[in-house]
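Internal QA ticket QA-208
Title: Verify multi-chain structure generation after dependency bump
Assignee: T.L.

Test input:
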Amino acid sequence: MSDALLEVENLRTVFHTEKETIRAVDGVSFDVQRGETVGLVGESGSGKSVTARSVLGLVEEPGVIEEGSIQFRGDELVGGNWEEHRGDIAIVFQDPMNSLNPVYTVGNQIKEALRIHQGLRGQEATDAAIELLEDVGIPDAARRVSEYPHQFSGGMRQRAVIAIALACDPDLLVCDEPTTALDVTIQAQILELLDELQREEDLGVLFITHDMGVIEETTDRVNVMYAGEFVESAPVDELFDAPKHPYTKGLLASIPGRTAGGDRLPTIEGEVPTSTSEPTECRFAPRCPHAFDACREVHPERIAVGDPDAAHEAACLLYDDEFEESPPEDGVVADGGETA
Amino acid sequence: MSEAEPFLEVRDLKKYYDDGGLLGSDPVKAVDGVSFDIREGETLGLVGESGCGKTTLGRTILNLETATEGEVLADDTDVTSISGRELRRWQSHAQMVFQDPDASLNDRMTVGEIIREPLDAHDWPNLAVSVAGDREVAGKRVHRAEGDERPDLTVDADGSVTVREGAPLSTDDLTVDADGGRIDVTLQKHAAEMREDRVRSLLEQVGLREEHFYRYPHQFSGGQSQRVGIARALALEPRFLVLDEPVSALDVSVQARIINLLEDLQAELGLTFLFIAHDLSVVRHIADRVAVMYLGEVMELGPTEQVFTDPAHPYTESLLSAIPGSMVETGERITLRGTPPSPRDPPSGCRFSSRCPAKIRPDEYSVTGEHWEALDQLQSVFRARSNAEKGIVDVVKERLGIQDVSTVDELLLELFDAERDGDGGITIDMADDAAAVVYEAAELARAGDEAGAAERLDDAFGSVCSEEHPDANDVGAGRTSRCLRHREAYEDPGPVIEQRYRSD
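Actual output:
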């Protein structure tokens, strides 16, 4: 594992507010290898985006990385070494319009990145910018390089943002909900593009989304995040075929349309809590249909579950031999009922 | 499902927006000739990409937008042309739930006030009283039920009073004096009190608690806010709800709970739904039938499961194949190129022809599949260029007669994988007659006539798809599909897509 592109160890990012300290990311560990896509999935407020921002050193006051290590190709980034690797890690955000400057042409914005990260100028930079736009599938690139963001459609803007990210010549691409604002047809185009680019450039990709379908399609390995922690990690096929953690099961079951309609959708009661103190219990226990007494007293550690060859881990006492309770037979989670 | 009576009949409905530009530009045809029935008690799903006109269609059906043409018949009344009292009655029967719960709730009002607002606006209650014979009805906040209006109270000839089942009042709330020639109805409660009771029972109905009455929307989560939006829509006892992306802004676990709530309410209150969504999986779960919209038209309509498992129209097939993950078993993905064209200037013939994976090709050219795609793309680039607002530099270039050689050449090299020959010209490796057309079009584009270039390509390589507007063909089992390939003379879209994109 030492040759990992990105290695995150016990990362804790907290936000100090006047009232309390919010533990947005609370001790997560994962790595990303070259050429692979690692997914981070969870509901709003689970800490996915803060994890992404932490990796890029973009956490701003009152947020702070309180503990843990983030190593990029073996170099420790925590403590302020992001500058050295500025161009090596690039990010694509959800809303392309927020990432593009409306008063500069798309070409200028790509050339800016090319100048800073690759030292290209003048005609050389223009040619490279056109080539990048062609690479990301913008038709008529030679003409459109001198257009402004507002002249681009939503899908094309996201392509332009990806072109800018590529202009940095990164090794690691962090995608934070890159297709959430797009229609399903455009989403398919962007996912296809990202997949192609990854293979061509041998990129490592950290892919963040709340959409299980996108996760299934794009990633090699998945981490399921809940209230700042990773509750389950597994290769993508294993996670979808044999989810272990009750939260993962509930999440998968509540997606409509996976089976023919008609039946009631299974639900998970309650909301994702905000973590403000060190966990002394399972954070999912209040919403868990299988919780037992120990779940409210013991913080579950990640342990190996499922197929021993699959590097499948879950943080759930049901799988801990110290406790008698064992997981339910089939993958069905009971209907959590109907409370607001 | 059984063939229930149509609740609504939408007939050739059109909604155009004319921004009255200086040059009298073409109107935006947001909804352009939509016809379908919505059956009593069913959920009709409406899907399509952003900008296809889904929301405008929903709003026009409710008469929140004025229809440009066509009609929407409810109980034989065209609701697009009513006004005054009739319109108010329709709008109490038919309500809308919006996508973004936070944006659609006024943050300065308490939840109780928000839900009460439609009751205040319609001066609720105003009870419809059905009486035998032609006796007069008198009293505050009551009126004689007119025509087919649903009565809240029924007074029989012998003076006995029944309250409609499910009506938000009880016999204790009123006294009826039927002794004289007319019927005097007196409400025992003040209207304000009745409204407050109504709001509390609505809160309970949507799964909120009484103490939520005095809270403000910002204190609520997304799911709770959407419940408030639903309660508000239900206040006047509507029979029909237009649900515009009601769960799109919600996380999947919250989304599941709101979907369950909507299904419960539909069963309990006998509601009819028009469910607008871009999320196909949600529609598959909730809708009995589904209408697929593209550029203001319904391309395919049919029972949900059949449309999902065996799409008839190439657009439906492409849309379904774009769903990520293993949700729907589809063959290899067909990725649609580009975005839908502008509804101001839709393609001639079939609206979908500029992106269609099953487009009918003219027989006279022998061109490879890849080159056909490149030709389509070249045409859409020229079209896009001719529609683009020109920057000052382009305008000056055009005025000075400077030819745009470099970008047109670049385009040909990129699209056709062409080579430059010795003297700088470009040669495309394609059948001579086809290549000649491309050179001609390129020449026009270099001279600045991009519209002409697009037209030249269309003249040569267009087919019936860009000439004829397809009708909504009956494709059996209560399904319609707007595709020319359903004609005898052509192969069906499914096998064509299979062969073009999924063979080998």
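Spot checks passed. The radius of gyration of chain B is 29 Å.
Status: verified.
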